[in-house]
Amino acid sequence: MTAIAAKIQSGKILISDGAWGTFLQQKGLAPGECPELWNITHPNDVFDIAKSYIDAGSDMIETNSFGGSSFKLTAYGLSDKVYEINKAAAEISRKAAGTNRHVLGSIGPSGKMIMMGDITYDDFYEAFKHQAIALADGGADAMVVETMSDLDEAKAAVHACLDNTNCEVICTMTFEKSGDSGFHTMMGVTPAQMTEELVALGTHIIGANCGNGIQNMIGIVQEIRKVNKTIPILIHANAGAPVYKDGQTIFPETPEQMAEFVKILIDSGANIIGGCCGTTPNHIRKIAQLVRQ
Fold it and tell me: Is this structure's pTM higher than 0.70?
């Protein structure tokens, strides 16, 4: 199968998937339950989610492994199941994707910070190494290190994926807009700084996910393109800003509302478009229809 970056270089705009957590909850995931354990205990439900995005038109599907590092699984007493859980996650998404769609091994943040003195760069590297190897063994052909706010942690995860797998490596960070001062992560990293450091490390694709609806993602893409004209960019936007209503957090943008900004996002330089919190197969289907027109 042609690599993702090579498809982009040939001029293609690719479609990624959408939110996972809300679907797991709809299928019965209880508060406080480990989502990643469902790869073992409820594989058919996880498969249904993956397949729903493939059927909606996604060119790539993530794995149910966002919290699959030893850092997160230890909290559930599952530190001895890192390999089993992550390999199963990739096998499920590979089954849904078939042989002609890409599987992105999802690697999320640890929740720990080097600056607090409770972890080192090498600790990050070792944990993400084990997760990446399991995802690759299960059939992932790319890794997506996502929702990062700390550049050291992001670089350790990317480094671990590049060193220990033959997969393409994607890294996305989560940015917030602060008045007129542009975008930055909660640790102060700007899109330009992310771009310069991750590209220098050898990351194949960079971008942003979560934290913003699709309209704000346009500004992030433009900031990336100011410092790098060619690196492929992936955007996973929320379905608008979250609203708390009737005891629940909802993301209000409809598929049609998200789709209004797809063309300008592409014109700004985005190459892969998918969704994050609040997005559904209907959002992805609408985006895919627009792109393929």
Answer: yes
